[in-house]
Amino acid sequence: MADTLPIIDMAALFGTDTAARRHVATAIDSACRDRGFFYLTGHGIAPSAFAAIEAAAHDFFDRPAADKARIAMRHGGRAWRGWFPLHGELTSGQPDGKEGLYLGEDLGPDDPRVAAGWPLHGANLWPATVPALRPAVESWMAGAARAAHALAAGMALALDLPADHFARRYTASPTLLFRIFRYPPGETGFGVGEHTDYGFLTLLAQDRHGGLEVRTPGGWLAAPPIPGALVVNIGDMLDRLTGGVWRSTPHRVVNGSGQQRLSWPLFFDPAFDAVVEPLPGFAPRTDHGRWDGASVHAPMGRYGDYLLGKVGKVFPELSATAL
């Protein structure tokens, strides 16, 4: 195995050249079997979009806590949106060395998912003092979602499925969750402890300061930033779909560089009411050996129920009233 993550140019997935699309699909399959992580270029997100969201995020996080608390998560209700302070989020029961802003697809009360009372769906909370944040986030999310849909088509091809398989079954109306995280320069230890992501795909952007590490059979592998590239990892549901042939690989963020770090992941997940079952020919594994002793291959109902069981442990006090 190489001691770096592979780099995949996905540009052909936006086109119609069958051979070029198949070439990308083959690279995706190799990366998902080997690491569960890869760098992604050719995603179509402009450099100006990276710069805009980074600048707006710095503007927001640099403000006093009292200003940020005006959009604290307790105001977000069932939509699970808003700001949380340093050490306010838990991973495996331990406080993370970061603060952050929870966002997602901005849905009004007339959206059927909101009208039905689905948790994690609803309106974003926007800071009035940072007007540049909303357009930066909305532009970024639109570009990242477009890339995620194309990447999902490439993943279907990699599994010898029709390109629209995942769109038809799971992601025509995906659960789109977006986060912006700030890791302060004075923190040490873990910005985020060891974990896997819950859903389908994560598309992560990060500033020039590293800290992300991926667990491999040989130990922890650093995934430093590459300008203009995203880091992609598959989540528990793709692990489940493929019977563990594709891995939702544990990862973490290590603080201690003395530099402030920003990252902003888009979680591209199955529809909240989707029932995710293994693909034909992929038997569920029972010996996956996750660090937490859990199994993503056990009997499962709706994806949304699985997701709620996970996020309820992230903010246990808030979940008692918001979910």
Keywords summarizing the entry:
323 residues, 14 strands, globular, 29% helix, alpha+beta, Jelly Rolls
Structure description:
There is one protein chain. The chain is an alpha+beta fold and 323 residues long. The protein has one domain (7-317): B-lactam Antibiotic, Isopenicillin N Synthase, Chain (Jelly Rolls). The chain contains 9 helices and 14 strands. The strands form 3 sheets. Strands 1-2-12-9-14-7-6-3 form an 8-stranded mixed beta sheet. A 4-stranded antiparallel beta sheet has the order 8-13-10-11, with no helix packed on it. β4 and β5 form a beta hairpin. α1 packs across α5 (133-158), α2 crosses α5 and α5 (133-158) crosses α6 (165-171). The chain is globular and about 55 Å long. The mean pLDDT is 94.
Write the layout of secondary structure elements.
Blueprint: E1 7-9, H1 18-34, E2 37-41, H2 47-61, H3 65-68, E3 82-84, E4 90-91, E5 94-95, E6 99-104, H4 112-115, H5 133-158, H6 165-171, E7 175-183, E8 190-195, E9 201-206, E10 212-216, E11 219-222, E12 230-234, H7 236-241, E13 251-254, E14 261-269, H8 303-311, H9 316-322
Parallel strand pairs: 1-2
Antiparallel strand pairs: 2-12, 3-6, 4-5, 6-7, 7-14, 8-13, 9-12, 9-14, 10-11, 10-13
Helix pairs in contact: 1-5, 2-5, 5-6
What's the alpha carbon Rg, rounded to whole Å?
Answer: 19 Å
Number of distinct helices: 9
State the secondary-structure class. alpha+beta
Strand content: 15-25%
Spatial ordering of strands, largest sheet: 1-2-12-9-14-7-6-3
How many strand units?
A: 14
What does the largest sheet look like? 8 strands, mixed
CATH superfamily: B-lactam Antibiotic, Isopenicillin N Synthase, Chain
Q: How many domains is the backbone divided into?
A: 1
Arithmetic mean pLDDT: 94
Helix-residue proportion: 25-40%
Low-confidence stretches: none
CATH architecture: Sandwich
The CATH topology name reads Jelly Rolls
- In the CATH scheme, the class would be Mainly Beta
| Distance separating the two termini | 43 Å
